[in-house]
Each structure stands twice: as structure tokens, then as C-alpha cells.
Amino acid sequence: MASILVAGAGPSGCAFAIVAARRGHAVTLMDEGRRRPPWSGESLPAGGGQLLESVFGAGVLDGQAPSYGTAAAWSSPELVAHDFMAHWSGEGWHLDRVVLDARLQQACAMVGVDVRSGTAEPSSGEYDWVIDATGRSGAIAARQGAQHVRFDDQIALVATVPDRGGPRVTTVESCAAGWWYSQPVAGGDRVVALVTDADLVEGDRTDFWSAQLARTEHVLQHVDITPTEVAAYPAGASARDPIVGDCWLAIGDAAVSFDPLSSQGLITGVVMAAHAALTLDAGDAALEAWAADYRVVLEEHLQVRAAFWSQEERWSTAPFWMRRQR
């Protein structure tokens, strides 16, 4: 039995903790609280709910709002619907991450994980393993000298506005400055976000967001009022190298951060974290193979992302798209 500290109590940290505890390890899960929470509007695609339940148990998504599909204006001004109800697993989910993270931590505690609040600052030799689940900051991996490789400088400019109602789907619309998405969130609101490159934001970001929104056709229909605040979040693809070291490893966004266009960050983080916990006892070679698998997932993500970008030809002279289609 190993003593393990998991720094970060989001979905990937909880997935590692619950699987490791079931295998008999003594696990401390540290909810540091300093990690910036994800922006509102995170979602699970069809099939994602079943995967979460396979790791954390039935009922983990109780209280979450169903998502019935997507509607995308990509490579064409026409809005094309993709219905999740045609998928074998049924609907996806619009997530309230505050509620979800609390449920995941409760599931961990029920199998014996020691869930704590505070900053993870382990002393030398205190734990057999330290798991970096600190999100994009990769705080532990960074202290171990892991390089942070960025594949772009995308940010998401995110605002929350009153929801006007309508279908519970995610709306995606490309534009010259990048691409938009909008979906309902908890409390009767709606998130409206522009994903663009950081250096393309001119002047005040709320003014920039509003000016770009005015040029949309579909997302504009969801907004009745101009928000007073638009927050900025990192939204690019990135990775740490290495993600496995001497008695430490990185999981979730601390290992690989995915472009939000793919909607795969949370699911991949949970799957790979659970896999790492299953692999922990198998030795260094097995963990290196796990890290190699993560690199394959990243390469496939970048290839699929490039294929999606190549489909959008309407903005070929705009800087955001020129950088991605050259």
C-alpha cells in the first residue's frame, strides 16, 4: 500500500483518488481552493454521463441539466443541428461544476479518501507519490522542472447573461476573430463565450466582446443585454513534458489541456487519471507507457482540431484563421 497525495480535487484528481483508494492505497485528496474555477458552460457530450458513473457510481450527475445536442454554424452561415438523442447513450449534460465537484469529492470520501481543504505542500518523503491535479497551472510539475509546451495562445472571453429560453443545446458559431459558443447554465442564465487569440483582443475586453458579438448571426439571438463584465480564461491546447517523474505524475489539465472546441478535456482527464491509478503498482515502464498513451491522445486531438479548422474557409484572411490554416 502506498501513501498518495493528490493535489487538486477536480474531476481528474477525484478520479485518481477514488480508483487508487479502491485498490487499497492511503489517499489524501487536497482541495487547494486557489485553483481558478472553470468558466460556466462546461458540458459533457453524449456518453459522458455513463463514463462518469462507471468511475464514481450512479447518481453522480443528479441535479445536472441535460443537453440535447449542438447547433453549429461552421464553414457555412447555416446553423446545423446535431441531436444527441440519436446517440445510443442518449443526452449529454450541461454541468454545474460547483455541484459536480462536491459530489465527486463525496464519492471519494465514501471509499476512504481523506478529503482536505488547504494548500498541498508535502515535505520530502512524506508521501510515496504526489499527483499533480492542479489544473493548467501544473504547479507540482512546474516545480519538478517539467516544460510547459503551448500550441497556441487562445483565450476564452466569457460572459453570463439571462437565458431567453429555447432548446437546451450548445450553439457554436465561427467568426473572423475565432469562434463562439453559448449554452444554458444553472440558475436560469446562459454563458456566451468568444474563443480567440490573446493578442487579437483590442482595448477593453468587454467592448471587444460586444463588438464581435454584434457581427454574429446566431449567438446574438441569445443575448438581450450587454454584460457588465467579461472574464478571460486560458483556452489553448498545451502539455507538460514530462508528466511522470520520480514519485510524481501529472493528470488532467496539469498534464494536457485540450482546446474547448473538442469538449474532451473533462472526459479525457477522468479516463487517463483512472488509468494512471490502475497503473501505479505496475512499475516505471507501465507508467512511461501510460505517458506515451497520453501523448498519442494529444497528437490525435491536434490532428482532429486542424481538420476542423481547415473546414472553415470564410475567414481565410483573418489573423486567427491564417495562423491555423497555413
Task: Give keywords.
single chain; 326 residues; alpha/beta; seven-stranded mixed β-sheet; 19 strands; 27% strand; globular
Walkthrough of the structure:
The structure is a single chain. This protein has 326 residues and is an alpha/beta fold. Helices cover 30% and strands 27% of the residues. It has a 7-stranded mixed β-sheet with strand order 6-5-12-13-14-11-15, covered by helices on one side. A hairpin with a 2-residue loop joins β17 and β18 (248-250). α1 runs parallel beside α6. It starts with a strand and ends with a helix.
CATH architecture of the domain at 3-48 and 97-150 and 237-308: 3-Layer(bba) Sandwich
Look at the structure and name the CATH superfamily of the domain at 3-48 and 97-150 and 237-308.
FAD/NAD(P)-binding domain
**CATH class division of the domain at 3-48 and 97-150 and 237-308:** Alpha Beta
Structural category is alpha/beta
Largest sheet, strands/sense/barrel: 7 strands, mixed
The CATH topology of the domain at 3-48 and 97-150 and 237-308 turns out to be FAD/NAD(P)-binding domain
Oligomeric form: single chain
Topology pattern, helix = H, strand = E: EHEEHEEEEHEEHEEEEEHEEEEEHHH
Spans of at least 5 consecutive residues whose pLDDT stays below 50 are none
Mean pLDDT: 93
User: Could you tell me the number of beta strands?
Assistant: 19
Q: Shape, please?
A: globular
